[in-house]
User: What shape does this take?
Amino acid sequence: MLAQKENLSQVKLVDAQPLRLRYSRNALIVIFIISALAGIAALVLGIFQHFWPLYLVSVAFVVSAIIDIFALTSIWDASFEIKILAATLGIEIALIFTGGVFSFAYGLPTAFLAFFIGFMFASYNPTLKLNEWIIGLGLFGALGSTLLGVLAPLQQISNPIASIAIVALDLAAVFFLVKIFLSGFFSASLRLKLLLSALAIAIVPLIILAVVNLNSFRSVITSQSDQTLRIATELTINQVDDFFTSHLTLLETEASLPVFSSYLALFPASRHGSTQESEMITSIKSFQSNDTIYAPSYAVLNYQGDDLYDTDVSKIGKSEATTDYFQKCSTTQLPFASTVEFVPYTRESYIYFITPIFSQDLSLIGYLRINYDSHILQTLLQKNVGLIGSHSYPLLIDDNGIRLADTSNPDLLYHSIQTFGTDKYTSLLTSGRIPSYIPATQIAAPVDEIANALFVARSQPFQSFSVNMQSAKTNTLDTASYGSMTTQKWYVVFLQEQSALIQTQQEMTRSTALIAVLIIILVSILVGIISNFFTQPIIDLTNTSKLISAGNLDAHVNVNSHDEIGELGRTFNSMAAQLKSSFETLDKRVAERTQELAQQNDTLRYRSRQLQTVTDVARTIVSSNDMESLLVMVTQLISNRFNFYHAGIFLLDEKGEFAVLRASNSTGGQRMLNRQHKLRVGQVGIVGYVTGSGLPRIATDVGKDAVFFNNPDLPDTKSEMALPLKIEDRVIGALDIQSVESNAFSEEDVALFTTLADQVSIAINNNQLLSNTQKALDEAQSLHRQYLNQEWTKRAADLGRTSYKYTSQGLTTYDEDLPEVKMVFESGHPVTRSAVQDNSGEKSFSTLAVPILLRGEVIGVIHLQEHEGSSLVWSERELLTVQTLADELAQTLENARLFEQTIRRADRERRVLEITSKIRSTNDPQKMLEITLEELKRHLGASQAQIVINLPGQPSGYDEPSPKNPNGNSRD
Assistant: This one.
């Protein structure tokens, strides 16, 4: 046994070394290819971009490729471990320069790649020597790459292709790192594990602390920036809203001046050249002089919308009644400010303000309207450019995404931030909401981030989001905030470039990363010194344990200390002595135990097959609903699956005196079935015993057992087992199984087949319950149909008419006997008949008769007939439609009948209650009788009412009517 272990250990070591050697050579080839390609790419990129630091990167990768060539060939006469160490150093230096030159995530992706290369070479090192130095070089490359990336002593460049290449290499590194761990190639000394563990313990808190600090700092800066941006947005919104509200207020004040009402109060023919007109014009010119940059155009309209006077003389006499702003103002009779409206086929666009003019008696006599050039919005927003710092600017966007003001790029004024469909573009152009001089193909200048925030995601107003405006000023992203105006369905979007914020965050990140890297370097040096001090005794102990694990149980550990390492040495010595004693008897004990386990496994497999068979049989028998087929199927399945000679099922008769054979699979069993074989319960045979006691029974040799009878129909039976079929504690029958082999059944078979018998009992009971339930349901349905037939027959007799006919003249009754109706009443199924012309030339009608079924009872028929001469063939769809209508009609008629019945019963009870109340209103018996007769006569409509009282000694009948009282009622 010890020799086998030693050989196995040696085989593993011998097999692993060539495999590691092959993998390490493949790794060198891959690093050579990457170094060569990276060196060429860096050289070409440096030439094209005139960027000298790329030459350093190119030289570093070329040197790395040359070292790989020497390591892969026999030119360099050195050990393979030294070659791997040199190749690792070359590629690590190249990666350090790469992380310092390319400004991509501060060199962190390159740092990960550098550490992975050191880890990979250490894992594939054939002899595992110098692994600590190789891992150290990987750590050196990672720290150096990060330091150069953070401090940026060299001029850095951003190149997307290089970034994609580094990320791709990192993904490949992650894949191979997982593969190395899963394959178990990585093997490290205790000193190296301590170093890596200490670095992990140091790095994780540093990373967490750095991330928390950076997030806190970024959160503060971002919060301040967002707050400033929100204030700027709100300020701009207030300015634009104030422009509209102030002008509406001013216009309303101007319209209230008497000059306008006096002018409009004149007759139209007296207005021109009048004093009122002169005063009005003077006032309007005075109003215009208040705005020097964008002077508004004033107009006075009559109440019908006609332009009576306009500072733009070209519009005098024209009607503005169809304009949106006039209709809104005339409807509400309140001041109104329009959105920007574009004049078709021109570059003109205006904002219209309009307010009603009232006379002294407050009646509407006209409107005062002004319009501004829409470029005034650009002027308003231009005042807030740089409001919160350089490169901050606002945009004004309407509800269709049109830039009404763009202080960042005025060339995009009146262009949309989203793409329009053809229908929407046409609609907006027709309504004057977009300029006609900008073609449909050029009007969209999409800004997806703003469009999504305003119209798609409906993000929270004033919530900041990033926007790529692709501005001509800078290529950096902008932070944006938006808010809605109150006077218009417009949005103000205020943007600020992120350059200052990004620069601050980068400085903070650099300082944090620098501190973290310096701490990692210090921890690495301290851990390296401490690990050498603590690991040497453990290494000595490990060497001794290798001798013991190799099979040299005579080897002992020299224990020189009393700490945990000394205790471990003493444990090894004790273990070696125990192993030496145990190995002497181990082989024999293993062989014996193996034989026992094999026997147990055979038994378990046999029982497992039996249980699986019982489960399959049970699953099959519960799928049948017919009693006879269920019993036959059970006997056949038991016989076929278990290869038994005979299987039979006995069920108790109604009195419980005999067990009657109900199903069997064998030929003899069929003969027994034909003569209705039965056994007395508790007296005859195994079946009698089982059905009487409710306990299973096994007979090992039925033919020689004096207790049980010999059956001439089953002469080959040598073993028999009978199991009771029980529902709870009630025996309903027995399952009889017979075999041609002696001792074919055991007590374990009883337990096994008892489960099957229980399943058969449940299936039989369910079948009986289902049969009884179905029978009861059929009887209930039959009684209900009789009740419905009786009630509807009575209903038809009460109505006196049972057939109705609907024609173009309306609904009428008729008594014609239709053969289709009779056929439907007899069959209960729809009847269709197509129009057919016989030899006499007469043509029948195309008819359809559908039964009105109420719970299976035909209570009526819908008979449809086409016009004469029609050749209509009734389709399945039409038949289904009429049938559906008939079903709804049946339920409706039944509800109506029940409602009428309820009404009649309620009326009858009401009358009885009224009569009873009147009777109880007096204590005089004679008066009670009179009231009773009067009420019965009145309610029943009888001409005469009598109450006959049979006194003792008097005859029970009347020969002569009693004298009538004055009310016409007879009484005694």
In short: The first helix runs from residue 2 to 49. Residues 378-501 form a domain with the Beta-Lactamase fold (CATH 3.30.450.20).
